[in-house]
Amino acid sequence: MTETRPGIRALLGGNRDYRRLLVAGLISQTGDWVVGTGLAFHVYRLTGSTLSTAIMLLASRLPDVVLGSVAGALADRWDRRRLLVATDVLLALGLLPLLAVREPDQVWIVYGVALSTGVLSTVLAPAQKALVPQVVADSQLVRANALHGQTGQVARLLGAMLGGVAVGAGGLAAVVLIDVASFLLSALLQATLRTPGRPAGAATMGGHWIAGLRLATRDTGVRLLVAYMVITGLGEGIFATLAAPFVSGVLGGDGGAYGLFLSVQAVGGIAGGLVVALHPSRAAPRVLLGGATVAFGVMDLALFAYPLAVPALWPALVLIGLAGVPAAAAMAGFTTLAQSVAGDDHRGSVFGILGSAQAATALTGMVLAGMLGGTIGVVPALCLHAAGLIAAGIMALAWDHA
């Protein structure tokens, strides 16, 4: 592919297929946040049980741990565009049983839908990320990955707010219908992509899966990415668990302060993605990943340690917003490096393995945070997460692919 104009305008204005892929991802992820937010609220209101909500969330996330590598192999075996379209349609149809939920003893329907949608959703990320290099020039990959990586943050802001409003105004039915519409619209957009078809290779899906596992154990680049994901996944789990105790117990903030803290985090991520997209680094993806991760870790270390001297809320809001820039750069570098270390035949498998590693270690990090928060304290545990980021960044900078 050739670029007719430099910069972000060439990507968004001159690349019809990338633009549609980006919008499709934004729409479907917004729908996910709508149903995730609304369903969690509705299940608790229906059953009065926090355990029911926890089971629903576990059912939706467990497939990422167990089936990520298998889903990645599907993206290598089948035509990725058709796979994305079929998955979106199945996700839309799979939500319809929720319309029958009326009584607490019907909560099993919610669990079944959460599990089935969780299984189907594992296909989306590997296929989308493996598809990006098929529609974007190599010189635009960092910029494209920076924008694509921030659709989740935008969807989080829009979908969480819309989900709360929808479940309050129209109940579960409104939430379900919004998400069904989002998946169908995403499928329609992706059906119009002009991507090269996948050749019918000799390898079976099992062959692609095995080849992906071999890459994860033998290729130094994939091993680096898996190690990076393990370290940072643990940190994500620690942060997700201890963010509320940090704002409440350490900074003395209330629920509104916690909501503002998370909102600023999302806004900072969006702003960071735009900065990287507008001014992508000329550095190699490995250097971008390593340098940005070290910077991200240093800023997080300042964020979690400053209350030891000045226990005020406003510096936390400033620091977590500013951290969005290196966080977005690290994400763009990571995705671009993953796309480059594996050939097109194995990109889906690599992203599937990385997704499984992230999901598994994030869950482990949540358990670890529960133990560390009560033993060494919230601030030291969060500083340990920041130190892990710095170590992961140094590891990426020191990596030699020779």
UniProtKB/TrEMBL annotation:
Residues 221-402 form the Major facilitator superfamily (MFS) profile domain. CDD domains: MFS_MefA_like. Keywords: Cell membrane, Membrane, Transmembrane, Transmembrane helix, Transport. The chain crosses the membrane at residues 21-44, 50-71, 83-101, 157-188, 224-246, 258-278, 287-306, 312-338, 350-372, 378-399. InterPro entries: MFS_dom, MFS_trans_sf, TM_effector. Its main location: membrane. It holds the Pfam family MFS_3. It is found in: Cell membrane. It comes from the Bacteria. It is a multi-pass membrane protein. This is MFS transporter. It comes from Nonomuraea helvata.
